[in-house]
From TrEMBL:
InterPro entries: CrtA-like
Record-given protein name: Spheroidene monooxygenase
Highest taxon in the source lineage: Bacteria
Naturally occurring in which organism (per UniProt): Micromonospora jinlongensis
Length: 245
């Protein structure tokens, strides 16, 4: 799949601890239903982490997410009324949706290139960075030991608006979502921060990943409760359309 989608959505739900059995049921039942929605090219249901360690002890069992690649905005508009959307709405006490346009994408996810080959382009507003990888089991412990300095640096990075970890399974399927005030802040952290640069340079030699993907998106809209996204700064009403601090 090389065509660049017009719209990618990230839905995030906050549930209570009492709702954990129902959330786990949804995680077992809904992945196939999500991919089968009309107009959905690609879809993943994700567990999340706090974004402080990105290791096995970082899981947040009260927050869940769905990343979906759509044929069109009209197809995406039907999500809330779908069986998947209604099921999560019933167990969530807060939620948010982020509308995204792919800017760059490198690598694969489950053997696919879900965001195609975006041409890039100049963006002056908020951007979202998505990283995900399938860890090699024999290299997982080394990876988790290398992450704490990067996570600590990310927490205090200038221009960071939100961050959290994501995963398709408790172990081995790791990823991060981060939202930045503008692309220059993201680039400054990704390529100039010493801890992050050190991790990047170790990746080829350590062989941490069996599969990896790195993508950046223009944030076109944020609807709902930003706190569900782990918002750590107020982007201001002029920065993110439709957002709620």
């Amino acid at each position: 799949m090389n065509a660049v989608p017009e719209l990618v959505t990230l839905h995030v739900w906050r549930t209570s601890r009492a709702a954990l059995p129902r959330a786990l049921t949804r995680m077992a039942v809904d992945p196939r239903r999500l991919r089968a929605l009309p107009g959905a090219r690609f879809g993943k249901l994700l567990g999340t982490g706090t974004g402080t360690g990105f290791g096995p002890g970082d899981a947040d069992l009260t927050r869940w997410a769905a990343l979906t690649v759509w044929d069109s905005p009209a197809a995406a508009a039907g999500f809330d009324d779908s069986a998947v959307g209604r099921a999560w709405a019933r167990i969530a006490h807060a939620s948010a949706r982020v509308d995204l346009r792919p800017l760059t994408s490198r690598g694969e996810w489950s053997g696919q290139r879900p965001f195609g080959d975006p041409p890039g382009g100049r963006v002056t507003g908020p951007v979202l960075a998505l990283t995900r990888a399938r860890l090699r089991a024999r290299r997982a412990a080394t990876f988790w030991r290398a992450i704490p300095p990067v996570a600590a640096a990310l927490r205090d990075a200038p221009g960071l608006l939100a961050r959290f970890g994501v995963g398709e399974a408790p172990l081995g399927w790791q990823g991060t979502v981060s939202v930045w005030r503008d692309p220059t802040d993201l680039v400054a952290f990704a390529y100039r921060h010493p801890e992050h640069r050190a991790a990047i340079m170790r990746t080829p030699t350590e062989g941490w990943y069996a599969e990896e993907l790195f993508a950046r998106f223009e944030v076109r809209d944020v609807v709902g409760d930003r706190s569900v996204l782990g918002w750590v700064a107020d982007g201001g009403p002029e920065t993110v359309k439709g957002g709620r601090a």
